[in-house]
Amino acid sequence: MRLNEQIKILGRKIILVPYEARHVKKYHEWMSNDTLRQLTASEELTLDEEYEMQMNWRKDDDKLTFIVLDAEIYNRGKDEIAAMVGDTNIFLHRDPDIDQQVAEAEIMIAEPDARGKGFGREAMLLMLKYAQSHLKLDKFQVKIDMDNATSLHLFESFRFVETNRVEVFHEVTLERLITPDWISWLDQQVELRIKRYERNDFQP
Ligand SMILES: CC(C)(COP(=O)(O)OP(=O)(O)OC[C@H]1O[C@@H](n2cnc3c(N)ncnc32)[C@H](O)[C@@H]1OP(=O)(O)O)[C@@H](O)C(=O)NCCC(=O)NCCS
User: Fold this and answer.
1) Residue nearest to atom 7 of ligand 1 (CA)
2) Closest CA to 81 of 5, 122, 20
3) Is the dihedral of CA 25, 61, 160, 178 positive or negative?
4) Number of CB atoms found within 10 A of residue 1's CB
5) Rounded to an integer, what distance in angstroms lies between the CA atom of residue 44 and that of residue 38?
6) 166 or 38, which is more confident?
7) Of 25, 97, 112, 131, which one has the greatest count of Cβ atoms within 10 A?
8) Structural domain count, the chain
9) Cα–Cα distance between 127 and 16 in angstroms, integer?
10) Which residues pair with 92 in a beta bridge?
């Protein structure tokens, strides 16, 4: 969606910036890794398809995405590509059975050296706070591989609870209703600092 195309979110360890065409090449290199594709339930795309996907994520009203930058690397050289470590996104859909607006969340810290430093936790919390405060949502949802202990632990620590388990897909669904209590909890975890993002006219 276009909601976030001119903003960046400043965390303590990471910075979230909108997913732009200039980020696609490195993103595509990450997604050539079989394990990462399996953990994120992603299909292998050609570079051209990845550029098309980036445009769709920008244009479509049901998709919100940010690239995660390592703040220390970025602040050293102001080189966004060198500072890229992962992405976080949200896909919106309506659950007609219960008439609720659901935001399915994803987080990936793709660079192995960047894992286990708190980047995934901070990036996801900032995304949840941004989405909760800028979109009309009833609940967050996440689908995680049953063996992905790190990710399960992460979302349980965000007070998500298991609502479904599909053995054939080896997948667990965790959900979090957006209640006033949970919003207060979220507000104690992160502070949303939003700045203007200077766009770049890079064309592939
Ligand atoms: C899952 C992922 C996003 C976590 O991000 P991260 O930056 O590595 O994790 P953080 O450093 O923020 O740590 C988050 C929590 O996981 C725990 N953790 C981190 N690495 C861990 C590991 N190897 N094993 C078990 N727990 C681990 C941390 O202790 C922390 O919990 P705590 O705050 O209670 O101590 C990241 O590892 C990743 O992208 N993995 C591959 C793709 C993926 O699985 N995506 C999720 C799909 S839903």
Assistant:
1) 120
2) 20
3) positive
4) 18
5) 10
6) 166
7) 131
8) 1
9) 8
10) 103
- With a pLDDT cut of 70, the percent of the chain lying above it is 99
Distance 201 CA to ligand 1 centre (A): 34
| Residue carrying the six token digits 């992460």 | 154
Identity at 107, one-letter amino acid code: I
- Position 176 in a domain: yes
Other Cβ atoms closer than 10 A to 14? 30
Domain assignment present for 198: no
Residue of 150, 152, 156, 157 to test ligand 1 pocket, by largest number of atoms within 8 Å of CB: 150
Q: Are 174 and 144 in contact (CB under 8 A)?
A: yes
Q: Which of 128, 116, 192, 118 is nearest to 160 (CA)?
A: 128
8 A C-beta contact, residue 77 and residue 66: no
202 in a structural domain: no
DSSP H stretches of helix in 62-148: 71-77, 80-83, 119-134
128-162 b/e with 16+ CB inside 10 Å = b?
bbbbbeeeebebbbbbbbeebeebbebbeebebee
Could you tell me the CATH number of the domain that includes residue 48?
3.40.630.30
Q: Report residue 53's pLDDT band, with 50, 70 and 90 as the boundaries.
A: very high
pLDDT level of residue 74 (50, 70, 90 thresholds): very high
